[in-house]
Amino acid sequence: MCNSMIKSRQGHFATVDGRRVLQPTCNRVVVPPTSKDLVTLKKPVPKTITASMRLSPPISPKILRKSVKGSDEKPLSSPKLASSTKPIVRKNSNGLSISGAISLESSMNSSSSSSSSIDLKVPGSIAAARREEAMLTQARRKMRIAHYGRTKAKVAPIVVDQFPLEAVNTRLEKRCSFITSNSDPIYVAYHDEEWGVPVHDDNMLFELLVLAGAQVGSDWATVLKKRNDFRMAFSGFDPEIVSRFSERQIVSVSAQYRIDLGKVRGIVDNANRILDVQSEFGSLNAYLWGFVNHKPIATQYKSCRKIPVKTSKSESISKELVKRGFRYVGPTVVHSFMQAAGLTNDHLVTCPRHLHCSSSLSSPS
User: Fold this and answer.
1) Does the N terminus or the C terminus of the chain have fewer Cβ atoms within 10 A?
2) Annotated binding-site residue? 26
3) Residue 351 marked ligand-binding
4) 11-25, 167-181, 208-222, 295-309: lowest mean pLDDT where?
């Protein structure tokens, strides 16, 4: 047994006629290796690594050990990996994200680098696309409105022969914008006939002063509907009669016509102050119109938003009236009274009443 072990170490076994025969080492015959005994060499690693090779998944060593028969045969690929593709995202040194789906078959074939789909995009590409779309929309809008204000509007000429002159004037001229289609007819009639027309009668001036104070906290349409009640309650606004009202009459007027008791007392006090003015200046008309030099104040308002609720002139008149003992004559009330009595023409320039009220001159007392 020991001799056989020594011989086995000094020789080798060979197969002769299907049997294993121990032979000396010198009789060993070197058999050239067959294709089956060849081991597939690993592919040389290229010096430059492309993006497709960088993104390819690692190849299993088991696949590399399988021999490739002939140069024309295609490399083996795993059916699972070849059929499925997974997106891979990497970031390079410049901050760009590289996303793509690369198959295992295309990664093993170094010559076919075009088969891998690589898409380079900037981070936040959705927001960038939206910003670009908004910029394009804005640019198109600018081009669309670039001609605004540069081309003359085409206005069709109005043929006067086909329409009466009054109809043409009505279409071209409009009332003040606070008169609308929903305005009360009594208010529209007041605007078209009385508002802004110069008034020189003392009783009428007294009436307008009372109505201007009564419309505070209300509106002109409501006050105009109660205008006849005011005239009946205060005897046609005769200062001499109103100044002699007793306390019993004041309470009766307040209860009968539903007028605030304090306002009724204020109207009676104002009637006494008017008598003082008449004795000093001759008439209330001369006193009030003297503040505007006996000529209406002409304004050139193009919008009702520009019309103020009070002016420096109404404030100065209000101070003088308060000094004389008048009540309910604040700057806003005085300015409303000036508009109603024609001391100021606040009709809009587009209103047909503006020219009519401007041509009306106050007559000297």
Assistant:
1) N
2) no
3) yes
4) 167-181
